[in-house]
Amino acid sequence: MNSILKKALTLLAGDDMSLDFLKLPIKARPLKTLTERELLTLESEVGGQLFGPVADSHRREFFCLDKQTWIWYEEWLDAKKKKQSTTVRYEVSPQGVLKVQEGLQYNYLEGEELRNFGLSVRLYYEQVARKVYRRDPATGQKLL
Amino acid sequence: MNTTTINHDTYQLPGSNGELDRTHEYSERDSEISRSTPNTAVERMTRDAIEAAEAAHTIDTSDIDQRRIEHVGGNVIELAGRPTAHEFDPTSTVDMLTAGAYIIQFRADEQPIQHAA
Fold first, then answer.
1. Which distant-in-sequence residues (6+ apart) come within 8 Å of A54 by Cβ?
2. Would the CA dihedral through B51, B78, A45, A138 be positive or negative?
3. Do B77 and A98 touch (CB under 8 A)?
4. pLDDT greater at residue A83 or residue A10
């Protein structure tokens, strides 16, 4: 703080007055400068770990692209050390969850797969809210 | 019959006496609303992702509305394993959409305001 201002305040208010209120607040939102893509990457790091450990030769991403679209991406090296990958897009609508996968027909999730997907979405939301955005998943409010 | 007389000393025509300033306020508010809804950058990313997926994938839309009993081509989420899934109540699709909407809102709240070029 400017020393002249400090002296002036001390003269006016006396030595026993705390001047802490003049200090600049600590930046409370450290993510503020990240781009949308960087935030997605952070979310995806959390999402990729929801399904347990990933083998060394694998890379897994699972993230919320927008309100109704979720992406699963898996990348690995085959026996010939050639990179393979698969991308699955899940489109959520009130009627169901449509699964779109490379080279395959569209199909709606059912049974165990639908339950697993729903659980994954719930876990993703709870963990991303806490770990990335520092929010209470139940209320959406900032955690102190 | 009673008649209403307009007091011309206080009555203001639209567009006069500060009306433009209020229009400015509305446009700022609209800008904030559009930033906090998922219809901006995320929508653009979605469109890009879908276009990229459609360009790379062979998509057969012949059965898009047909529910399929068997899981053609395997089940990625199932293969990844979720042994504790049965311990939770099933999550409805509305809950999934709500979770997605909250995440998009959190994401928008963290982003700096984007000014038009």
1. A48, A60
2. positive
3. no
4. A83
Sign of the dihedral defined by the CA atoms of residues B8, B11, B16, B17, in that order: positive
User: How far is the CA of B29 from the CAs of A38, A83, B21, B32, B105, in angstroms?
Assistant: 26, 48, 13, 5, 17
Instruction: Give the integer Cα–Cα distance in Å for B116 and B30.
Output: 13
What DSSP element (H or E) covers A61? strand A58-66
Q: Is B15 exposed, middle or buried (0-12, 13-18, 19+ CB in 10 A)?
A: exposed
- Residues facing A61 on adjacent strands: A73
pTM score above 0.90:
no
Split at pLDDT 50, 70, 90, the class of B22 is very low
- How far is the C-alpha of A64 from the C-alpha of A68, rounded, in Å? 8
Residues 1-20 of A with CB under 8 A from B: none
B78 closest CA partner among A131, A103, A90, A115:
A115
The answer to whether the CB atoms of A108 and B85 lie below 8 A apart is no
Rounded CA Rg of chain A: 24
Nearest-CB residue to A129 (from B50, B78, B106): B106
Global ipTM: 0.74
CA atoms of A126 and A129, how far apart (whole Å): 5
